[in-house]
Amino acid sequence: MSKPQAILVINAGSSSIKTKLYAADDLRVLDGQKIEITDEAGYDKAFADILDQMKRYDIVGVGHRVVHGGRDFNAPQVITPEVLEALEALVPLAPLHQPHNIRPVEQIARAYPNVPQVACFDTSFHRTMPRLNEIYAIPRALTDEGMIKYGFHGLSYEYISSVLPEVADETAAKGRVIVAHLGNGASMCAMKDGKSVATSMGFTPLDGLMMGTRSGSIDPGLPLHLIEQKGMAPGQVSKIFQKESGLKGVSGISSDMRVLLQSSDPAAKEAVDLFCLQAARQAASLVVDLGGLDALVFTAGIGENAPEIREKICAHLAHLGVNTESAPNSKNETAIHAPGSKVPVYVIPTDEGLMIARHTKALVLDKTPAPVVTPSRKL
Questions:
Q1: Is 323 within 8 Å of 337 (Cβ atoms)?
Q2: Among 124, 215, 229, 264, which is 20 to 30 Å from 31 by CA?
Q3: Is residue 95 part of a domain?
Q4: Which domain holds residue 34?
Q5: Domain count, the chain
Q6: What pLDDT is attached to residue 38?
Q7: Residue 275 and residue 185: Cα distance in Å, rounded?
Q8: Is 122 a catalytic residue?
Q9: pLDDT per residue over 249-304, tens digit each?
Q10: d(Cα 164, Cα 170) in Å, to the nearest integer?
Q11: Which residues contact 174 (CB under 8 A, 6 or more apart)?
């Protein structure tokens, strides 16, 4: 009996590897697992589990979430030795993510050398941003080296862009839209005609919104102060802003929004209120890039499942015509705007895995040509 043809999607991080198998013909989900990793032995076992999972199917392609594609990769790519070399050169831009994204590529290549693999980038969706929304007010030589705003969560935004026409009218779907991807990592994207024109994350995923353990945007003088006046090493400073800030740092309790919403501690409330205020500020600033607002979309863990957070953020934006209705919002319904709201508000679950599966199918089965890319040696 022949094995079912499938596309494997891998999202590999430092503490877990998520896999999903999709039917090659219609991309229905066949199987999936999330494997927690605590050490090197745990990783080896996790990868052995993935290989066992692959043996049950005829794998026609493997799609990988890769956090950073730099300036060169503005679309998914079939992974060749040259592409893999370019991805390794981008490790300094995402040292906490990129090595973990690349490792399964190398291991699958050894185990299944004839199975094509595809890299799908979190940065690619934002390569449509105009130059003024990419550059910082730093010396031009640094900009030319690649120190620009890349943006992240692009696979999530691309998915929302693809399904928004199914739930909204054409004005909302193809007009001026802000998508709020709110989870442990959080960002926002301003889209026109389904394409990114501005985003909150920047050169790294640390920029922009307050997150679970990340600070988001801060005065750049603050880390300099910690290094120059407090004598901290760069690694210590990085740990503070990457692992000890955000909801966790302000509350002193947890990085989990669910825990904070259930807590009676004033510090928990302050962390939640700051999160919502900063999110509203970011959304309001993105309206400038759009020249108005035709729709607001919430997605990801917090965005999809926390009515109180959506209500608080929208309350800050009421002056822009954003108003929610309590009943549909409390039920996490798709349309949560109040009657008469000038701006429709939607809750749409994201599906980055399906987006990767779509790209992998297009490149390895449908043979849709990808843009020819000659990787540069710059960042």
A1: yes
A2: 124
A3: yes
A4: 5-122+353-364
A5: 2
A6: 77
A7: 12
A8: yes
A9: 999 999 999 999 999 999 999 999 999 999 999 999 999 999 999 999 999 999 99
A10: 9
A11: 165, 193, 194
Give the tens place of pLDDT for each residue, 113-159.
Answer: 999 999 999 999 999 999 999 999 999 999 999 999 999 999 999 99
CB 213 within 8 A of CB 243: yes
Are the CB atoms for 209 and 200 separated by under 8 Å? yes
Taking CA atoms, 165 is separated from 158, 169, 173, in Å, by: 12, 7, 5
Q: Name the phi and psi angles at 176, rounded to 5.
A: -100, 105
CA dist 41 and 269 (Å) reads: 40
The pairing of beta strand 117-121 with beta strand 77-78: antiparallel
- Which band of pLDDT confidence, cut at 50, 70 and 90, is reported for residue 369? low
- Residue 90 placed within a domain: yes
Same domain for 96 and 176: no
Per-residue buried b or exposed e for 185-196, using 16+ beta carbons within 10 Å of the residue's own CB:
bbbbbbbbebbb
Range 313-325 average pLDDT:
97
Question: What are φ and ψ of residue 63, in 5° steps?
Answer: -105, 135
CATH code where residue 223 lies: 3.30.420.40
* CA–CA dist 379, 94 (Å, integer): 11
pLDDT at 41: 76
Provide the whole-model pTM. 0.93
Query: Tokens 């959304």 belong to which residue?
Result: 283
Is residue 188 a part of any domain in this protein? yes
pLDDT of residue 378: 47
**What is the C-alpha separation between 239 and 196, in angstroms, rounded?**
30
